[in-house]
């Protein structure tokens, strides 16, 4: 469900990369995830080496640190993959499962980004996509998102600004 392939670790032939279209530069984030999914959907084998062969540093100012951007980009990648109809039938038959999981993950990412409204909207997409998947944890996410969204309401920010000016 998440991107577990680090670009620095990939070995692929030029021919295979050219066939699937390289990185999608219209995406601000998750270009690599999109490419790996397209390679897999195209029938490419993806191998895994269990030893750690790379040290990876995450920088606070990197695009992947922006959880809201990652969530929105991942949703776009998944929606586009399923809309294309080029996936194997066993994956297409579980479309609602994968999309609902994507939206649920996005809800968590939006919470990390402190955006309760976006978290609620993503949770709503997950619920509409696969209502039978709802669990108690989803309610907890919703309550946390509601509390967070309530703290960020413009009227609250205006009241805070007015109070600060009155002092």
Describe the overall structure.
- With 167 residues, the chain is an all-alpha fold.
- It has one domain.
- 60% of the residues lie in helices and 0% in strands.
- It contains eight helices and no strands.
- The radius of gyration is 19 Å and the shape is globular.
Q: Give the number of DSSP strands.
A: 0
- Poorly predicted regions: 156-167
| Oligomer state of the chains in this structure | single chain
Averaged pLDDT, please?
82
Shape category: globular
Q: Strand-and-helix sequence, N→C?
A: HHHHHHHH
What structural class results from the helix and strand content?
mainly alpha
How is the main sheet built? none
Helix content range: 55-70%
Total individual domains:
1
- Rounded to an integer in angstroms, the radius of gyration calculated over CA atoms is 19 Å
Give the N-terminus to C-terminus distance in angstroms: 50 Å
Strand content: under 5%
Distinct helical segment count? 8
Feature tags:
167 residues; mainly alpha; 8 helices; 0% strand; globular; disordered C terminus
Write the layout of secondary structure elements.
Layout: H1 14-20, H2 31-41, H3 67-84, H4 89-92, H5 95-112, H6 116-129, H7 136-151, H8 154-166
Helix pairs in contact: 2-3, 3-5, 5-6, 5-7, 6-7
């Amino acid at each position: 469900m998440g991107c577990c392939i680090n670009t620095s670790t990939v070995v692929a032939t030029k021919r295979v990369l050219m066939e699937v279209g390289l990185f999608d530069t219209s995406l601000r984030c998750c270009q690599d995830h999109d490419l790996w999914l397209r390679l897999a959907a195209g029938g490419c084998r993806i191998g895994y080496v269990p030893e750690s062969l790379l040290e990876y540093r995450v920088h606070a100012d990197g695009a992947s640190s922006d959880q809201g951007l990652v969530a929105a980009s991942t949703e776009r990648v998944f929606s586009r993959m399923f809309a294309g109809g080029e996936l194997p039938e066993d994956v297409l038959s579980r479309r609602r499962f994968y999309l609902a999981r994507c939206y649920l993950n996005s809800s968590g990412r939006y919470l990390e980004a402190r955006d309760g409204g976006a978290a609620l909207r993503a949770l709503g997409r997950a619920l509409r996509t696969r209502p039978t998947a709802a669990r108690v944890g989803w309610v907890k996410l919703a309550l946390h998102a509601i509390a967070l969204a309530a703290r960020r309401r413009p009227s609250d920010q205006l009241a805070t600004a007015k109070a600060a000016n009155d002092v």
